[in-house]
Design goal:
It contains 18 helices and no strands. By secondary structure, the chain is mostly helical.
């Protein structure tokens, strides 16, 4: 006899097949699928209308970003076999948080073999997680190196779509290898604007202070998107050296750049950054108050964590 859970899942899948676009709260039924449940979903999936399949994945991605208790890796792996490129791209995006070797292998093959550039781009972006894990020696060395090699091949392939090359470079930023640094530096001076932006993004993913001069240079770019990426990257590097350079950007004409500057100061987290944010909070324009408050909270939390680490280091000595 089917379990209550399987009957509930079957009923939910029937609703999707009939065209029902689920609310976020309903999508928990597709989280953490076990083998039997995954089989149910895989069997029903092709019968679900295209638009509903896309909506399910898009909402699942948003939901997973806000709720760490929900995971849609199994759903993403099922949807990677979809006939629709849009669905496959969303499926690859949904796998951004997976740390499983089979997922890395699937995404690597999608990057190398899928005919649609938007799908390859999404796969390249989601492979960043495995680059980070390989950098930290927390992932299978052979598959991790295969992922890095596939991303390198994508960046260096001039016939590859620019968005795919850019996403691959951004993901590679986390890997500390000489040739990665060379690819970033080369892209930073490229004629293609998208590759220059990708280089700045990769600098942030590297968390390496060697790139600070490049990032600070872009704080003065006439291109708001470049300023935004440079500010976000500075938050990724999280160096105290960026604090004074970020202060003017709190008043940037582009609100997204200004918010990113506040968030970057929060990520840097030193006492000087907290001081700057608290002073700015007293005059923050409408629409920025929440972001500034959150940045102050983040900075204070990081400061406490840093102090605790220093205290533990002193005790260990």
């Amino acid at each position: 006899m089917p379990s209550t859970t399987s009957r509930e899942l079957a009923s939910f899948l029937d609703a999707l097949i009939s065209g029902h676009e689920p609310a976020a709260t309903e999508l928990a039924a597709l989280s953490d699928l076990d083998r039997a449940e995954a089989g149910q979903v895989r069997q029903a999936w092709p019968a679900i209308p295209d638009g509903v399949r896309v909506a399910v994945l898009a909402r699942a991605i948003a939901l997973a970003e806000d709720n760490v208790d929900l995971a849609f890796a199994e759903l993403g792996k099922i949807a990677l076999d979809d006939t629709s490129p849009l669905v496959r791209a969303k499926a690859a995006e949904a796998l951004w948080e997976s740390a499983e070797r089979p997922t890395a292998e699937r995404l690597r093959k999608v990057l190398q073999e899928d005919a649609d550039e938007s799908v390859r781009q999404a796969a390249a972006a989601s492979l960043r997680q495995f680059v980070v894990l390989r950098e930290l020696d927390q992932f299978d060395q052979r598959e991790g190196d295969a992922v890095v090699a596939a991303l390198r091949s994508a960046v260096e392939d001039q016939t590859q779509a620019t968005e795919v090359r850019a996403a691959a470079l951004e993901s590679l930023g986390a890997r500390t290898l000489h040739w990665v640094e060379e690819l970033i530096a080369e892209a930073y001076t490229a004629d293609d604007r998208r590759m220059r932006i990708a280089a700045v993004h990769a600098m942030g993913n590297s968390a390496d202070e060697r790139w600070l001069d490049y990032l600070h240079e872009q704080f003065y770019s006439d291109d708001p998107e470049m300023r935004f990426e440079a500010v976000v990257a500075a938050g990724g590097v999280a160096s105290e050296e960026s604090v004074d350079s970020l202060i003017p950007l709190l008043d940037d004409d582009d609100s997204q750049v200004a918010i990113a500057a506040a968030e970057a100061l929060g990520e840097i987290g030193v006492s000087r950054a907290v001081e700057v944010l608290k002073v700015f909070a007293e005059r923050a324009p409408e629409g920025m108050e929440e972001a500034v408050a959150a940045a102050i909270e983040t900075a204070l939390e990081l400061g406490v964590a840093s102090a605790e680490r220093d205290e533990q280091d002193d005790e260990d000595e």
